[in-house]
């Protein structure tokens, strides 16, 4: 073993360039995997921290009996407990505010907005605390010790009480835009137990406490197990499930990692591993071919098959010892440095200011390190190396001593060659490529594969257009005014669509008002939406609060619907006659267990009027932009005889020159109604742009690294091809081959590799690129619309390949030339 | 220098030293040698005596440490690499002990290689004549690794003659061959050189071959000793 180790070491030193290349390939693979995984871990952690930063309770119980809280505090499942009471409704203009009280019973629950920045929690009956903005809003000076007079109705009913409070503490301030109307912000101020007791004793206040709790097992249990545990705790204290509200977002984040992100990382990692395996394999394969004589000599000296394979393992092992840790280190440091930068950029873009606020503080506290993950990377890389070694080792084992010593590296099965009457430099080039057909093909394929991968992804990335992304929210024109509505809000039914349509917000007068704004070219209603419910058992309806939106399609939409048809058939007139409908989402169609031919007895809500209608699902088609999951024909829609205008969206086309003025005017109009939201093209473009760059640049970075690994392969082939033919090239020079002819011959060989690679990428690359685009489009990835040929990417790829191989040839040739011609002719490698 | 018009190759105080100080090796030490056109010279000497180094310098494969090599009246020691490769293509034919054929080219291509490198038209009749003389006529399409040692060396001889060089330099051309084949190859080499009027310089250990030559130069420790 010692001898094998020494031999491996000396071989590594002897074939320095090959050792370096293998090392770099392994290092880059490790680095890529580590960097991708670490970024994913950081991303998951960031999401986790964002969720955790707000609050960490598992569930809220709406308590029904007075004794429940104390039972809960002693319950074996309960880790932390906090009670909260909604004491009174604040009366101040249109303000939507409340006076509350909370008390920690078992430590461990926090709400970010309830962490005092100064002062203390109210103790005396006249003490109050809240965010400074609240006090400013009600006209008080937001300082601890300051006075504020508030009017309120205890339990939201009865007489209005007015009381002067002393500010005892302040919560962290929130940045709240002054443009947002009062009614849209839920203001909360906190008062003392003493005040509650005072009103309770007078009989004015009836406590209806909520219990916020955490149960044991967050780290070990799954989401479902946690939910079961919470529900069983509730039933233990005699509480029905309807009084239990789980903090789903928190529980989901803590118990199950984002499966989408994880699966993307796994797929990318698999591609990287597969690809690297191929490259490392190719390097070893070429190595064995050129080492056959040496292996034969070892065998002639008595080396067993086992020793030969050990020799290979030893060599790779030594390389891995250096390459893997280095790859891990760089792969870890890369996101460690870059990730906070990405977050900083995101912060600057401020896509979602409330989320980003939380990010500011945790930039440098991201948890990225995961030992099991790093071990998994090491194991994957080792497996990749091992797999890539299998065939070369098998080949090496088969080498017979006699054959190997005779072997002249040119062994082909051919005994003769048709040849040419005269020999030119190009004849030499092609003769050499032809004698190493397998090597030539393996190199071309691996190089080609990396280029195909590059072109494929480039094709999709190049087809991602900011405007397409923006068009997700603004289907046409430059602005969209949208009605914010709820489907089935039981607590605030006035926010439901059927209630809102009765208000006739989007009346003709309103539309005319919009048209009259200077610069507005046209105002258009989007197809309307009506809500439907069913008495039938249906997951689709159950998961949508028993309200599913329905819209319509016209005959003009038929070509697109037919093009995107997944199943069933679309016949407009038949559909109208039979009240047939189309389902517009392939994925959820399966998820909800729907089938063609399903019949739904529906109730449609036209304001306060209910229309019974039985529809049959006869087709699934997934058009680019669909408004609702179910669509019916326009004729069926018209037959409903709707009395309320079902418009929920309005699109505006405006003149470019007056865009900003129109936007300002629209902002003012939208601010008048709390149910309106304004979408403007410039903002959607900005959001699209940052969303796109978030994906585009990391993807291109990975591509470049893959290309680099692929390039290692070309370098290796060229080096081996030149170094192993040192003697032959020397002889050619002795026979009169000039330096210029030599360079021409070698770059000719490189050129063939490049041409082959480019051919593969130009044909297969673009073919697969287009197929990949179609697939991504079908999956609605980044709102892809039309295919954009990745011209620049292809040109850059070609240039890099051409110049890269020329540079390598010149570099190696210069190195070889340093050796005297005589030494080269005599060299035995 | 060309006072004697018949002299095709001449060395002037030719030296090739390796290393320095105590490690200085004088591979070729001040050799003056003149070779007349059409002459067949054998160079003999023990292993390490400097024969091959001398031959390499005569053939423009190696640069002398000092002194000069005159070929056809030109001092080639001062030439740049490009000019040297041109001279190797046109004026010198090499035959190596280990044949040194290009494995990816067939016999014919190997033979016409120096012509191709010089962008010259192949004189097919002439090459066919050589091929016939050397008994390779039914092997022209074969790749070198399918030939026997003797055949490979004959191919190397054909290659050396093909460009009609004025000088053929052979470095132990029979070193890898058995006696019978060696004799055959040598006889062919001598006959071809004569037929095409070429000067032949052969390095050999073989007494018999040495005796076939018009003149024998003996080298020891880098000097001509006889």
Summarize the structure.
By secondary structure, chain A is α+β, with helices and mostly antiparallel strands.
Task: Give a verbal description of the structure.
- The complex is a heterodimer of chains A (829) and B (226).
- Chain A has 829 residues and is of the alpha+beta class.
- Chain A has a 6-stranded mixed β-barrel.
- Chain A is elongated, with a radius of gyration of 36 Å.
- The two termini of chain A are 25 Å apart.
- Chain A has 28 helices and 21 strands.
- Chain B has a single domain, classed as P-loop containing nucleotide triphosphate hydrolases (Rossmann fold, 3-Layer(aba) Sandwich).
- In chain B, strand 1 and strand 2 form a beta hairpin.
- The longest helix of chain B has 17 residues.
- Chain B is globular.
- The chains are: A alpha+beta (829), B alpha/beta (226).
Q: Helix and strand string of chain B, N-terminal first?
A: EEEHEEHEHHHEHEHEE
* CATH class membership of chain B: Alpha Beta
Q: For the residues shown, what is the average pLDDT of chain A?
A: 82
- Whole-number mean pLDDT of chain B: 87
Compute the number of structural domains of chain B.
1
CATH superfamily heading of chain B: P-loop containing nucleotide triphosphate hydrolases
Number of domains of chain A: 4
Number of helices of chain A: 28
Q: Percent helix among the residues of chain B?
A: 25-40%
Q: What is the second-level CATH architecture of chain B? A: 3-Layer(aba) Sandwich
Strand content of chain A: 15-25%
Globally, the shape of chain A reads: elongated
The chain-level structural class of chain B is alpha/beta
Backbone CA Rg of chain A: 36 Å
Terminal CA distance of chain B:
24 Å
| Strand line-up in the sheet with most strands of chain A | 2-3-8-5-7-6
């Amino acid at each position: 073993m010692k001898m094998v180790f020494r031999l491996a070491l000396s071989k590594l030193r002897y074939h320095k360039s090959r050792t370096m290349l293998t090392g770099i390939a392994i290092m880059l693979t490790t680095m890529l995997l580590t960097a991708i995984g670490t970024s994913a871990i950081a991303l998951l952690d960031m999401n986790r921290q964002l969720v955790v930063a707000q609050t960490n309770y598992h569930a809220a119980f709406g308590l029904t009996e007075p004794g429940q809280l104390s039972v809960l505090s002693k319950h074996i499942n309960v880790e932390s407990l906090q009670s909260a009471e909604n004491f009174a409704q604040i009366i101040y203009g249109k303000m939507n505010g409340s006076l509350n009280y909370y008390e920690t019973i078992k430590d461990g629950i926090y709400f970010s907005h309830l962490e005092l920045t100064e002062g203390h929690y109210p103790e005396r009956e006249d003490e109050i605390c809240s965010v400074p903005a609240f006090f400013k809003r009600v006209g008080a000076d937001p300082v601890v010790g300051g006075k504020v007079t508030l009017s309120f109705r205890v339990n939201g009913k009865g007489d209005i009480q007015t009381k002067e409070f002393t500010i005892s503490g302040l919560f962290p301030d929130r940045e709240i835009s002054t443009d947002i109307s009062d009614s849209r912000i839920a203001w909360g101020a906190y008062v003392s137990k003493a005040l509650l007791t005072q009103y309770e004793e007078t009989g004015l206040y009836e406590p209806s406490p909520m219990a916020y709790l955490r149960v044991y097992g967050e780290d070990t249990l799954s989401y479902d197990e946690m939910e079961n545990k919470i529900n069983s705790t509730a039933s233990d204290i005699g509480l029905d499930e309807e009084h239990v509200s789980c903090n789903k977002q928190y529980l989901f984040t803590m118990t199950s990692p984002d499966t989408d992100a994880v699966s993307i990382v796994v797929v990318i990692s698999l591609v990287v591993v597969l690809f690297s395996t191929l490259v490392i394999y190719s390097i070893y394969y070429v190595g064995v071919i050129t080492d056959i004589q040496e292996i034969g000599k070892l065998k002639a000296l008595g080396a067993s098959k086992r020793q030969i394979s050990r020799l290979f393992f030893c060599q790779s092992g030594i390389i891995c010892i250096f390459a893997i840790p280095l790859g891990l280190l760089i792969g870890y440091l890369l996101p460690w440095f870059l990730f906070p930068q990405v977050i900083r950029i995101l912060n600057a873009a401020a896509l979602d200011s409330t989320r980003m606020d939380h990010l500011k503080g945790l930039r440098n506290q991201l948890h990225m390190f995961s030992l099991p993950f790093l071990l998994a990377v090491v194991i994957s890389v080792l497996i990749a190396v091992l797999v890539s070694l299998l065939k070369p080792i098998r080949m090496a084992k088969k080498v017979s001593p006699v054959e190997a010593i005779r072997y002249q590296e040119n062994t082909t099965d051919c005994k003769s060659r048709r040849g040419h009457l005269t020999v030119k430099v190009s004849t030499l080039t092609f003769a050499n490529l032809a004698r190493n057909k397998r090597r030539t093909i393996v190199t071309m394929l691996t190089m080609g594969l990396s280029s195909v991968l590059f072109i494929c992804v480039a094709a999709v990335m190049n087809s991602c257009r900011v405007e397409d992304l923006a068009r997700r929210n603004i289907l046409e024109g430059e602005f969209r005014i949208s009605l914010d509505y709820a489907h089935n809000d039981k607590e605030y039914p006035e926010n439901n669509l059927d209630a809102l349509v009765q208000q006739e917000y989007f009346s003709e007068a309103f539309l005319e008002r919009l048209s009259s704004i200077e610069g507005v070219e046209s105002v258009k209603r989007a197809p309307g939406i009506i809500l439907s419910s069913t008495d039938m058992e249906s997951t689709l309806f159950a998961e949508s609060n028993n309200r599913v939106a329905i819209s319509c399609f016209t005959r003009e939409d038929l070509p697109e619907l037919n093009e995107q048809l997944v199943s069933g058939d679309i016949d407009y007139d038949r559909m109208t006659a039979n009240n047939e409908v189309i389902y517009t989402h392939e994925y959820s169609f399966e998820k909800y267990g729907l089938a063609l031919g399903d019949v739904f007895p529906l109730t449609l809500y036209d304001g306060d009027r209910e229309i019974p209608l039985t529809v049959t699902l006869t087709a699934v088609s997934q058009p680019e932009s669909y408004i609702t999951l179910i669509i019916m024909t326009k004729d069926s829609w018209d037959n409903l005889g709707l009395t309320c205008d079902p418009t929920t969206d309005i699109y505006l086309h405006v003149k470019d020159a007056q865009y900003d003025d129109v936007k300002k005017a629209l902002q003012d109009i939208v601010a008048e109604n709390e149910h309106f939201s304004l979408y403007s093209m410039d903002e959607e473009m900005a959001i699209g742009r940052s969303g796109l760059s978030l994906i585009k640049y990391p993807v291109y970075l990975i591509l470049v690294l893959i290309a680099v690994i692929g390039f290692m392969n070309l370098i290796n082939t060229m080096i081996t091809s030149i170094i192993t033919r040192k003697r032959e090239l020397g002889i050619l020079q002795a026979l009169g081959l000039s330096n210029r002819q030599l360079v021409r011959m070698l770059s000719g060989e490189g050129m063939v590799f490049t041409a082959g690679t480019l051919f593969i990428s130009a044909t297969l690359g673009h073919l697969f690129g287009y197929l990949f685009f179609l697939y991504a489009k079908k999956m609605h990835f980044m709102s892809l619309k039309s295919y954009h040929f990745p011209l620049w990417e292809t040109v850059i790829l070609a240039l890099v390949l051409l110049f890269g191989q020329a540079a390598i040839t010149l570099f190696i040739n210069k190195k070889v030339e340093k050796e005297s011609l005589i030494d080269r002719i005599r060299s035995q490698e | 220098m060309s006072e004697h018009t018949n002299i095709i190759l001449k060395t002037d105080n030719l030296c090739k030293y390796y290393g320095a100080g105590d490690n200085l090796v004088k591979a070729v030490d001040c050799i003056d040698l003149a070779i007349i056109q059409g002459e067949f010279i054998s160079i003999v000497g023990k292993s390490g005596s400097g024969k091959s180094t001398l031959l390499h310098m005569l053939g423009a494969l190696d640069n002398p440490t000092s002194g000069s090599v005159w070929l056809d009246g030109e001092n080639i020691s001062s030439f740049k690499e490009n000019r040297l490769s041109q001279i190797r293509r046109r004026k010198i034919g090499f035959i190596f002990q280990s044949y040194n054929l290009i494995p990816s080219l067939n016999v014919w291509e190997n033979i016409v290689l120096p012509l191709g490198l010089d962008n010259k038209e192949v004189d097919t009749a002439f090459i066919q004549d050589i091929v016939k003389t050397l008994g390779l006529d039914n092997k022209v399409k074969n790749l070198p690794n399918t030939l026997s040692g003797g055949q490979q060396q004959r191919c190397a001889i054909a290659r050396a003659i093909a460009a009609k060089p004025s000088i053929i330099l052979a470095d132990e051309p029979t070193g890898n061959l058995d006696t019978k084949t060696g004799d055959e190859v040598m006889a062919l080499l001598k006959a071809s050189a004569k037929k095409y009027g070429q000067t032949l310089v052969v390095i050999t250990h073989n007494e018999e071959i040495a005796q076939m030559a018009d003149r024998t130069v003996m080298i020891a420790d880098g000097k001509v000793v006889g």
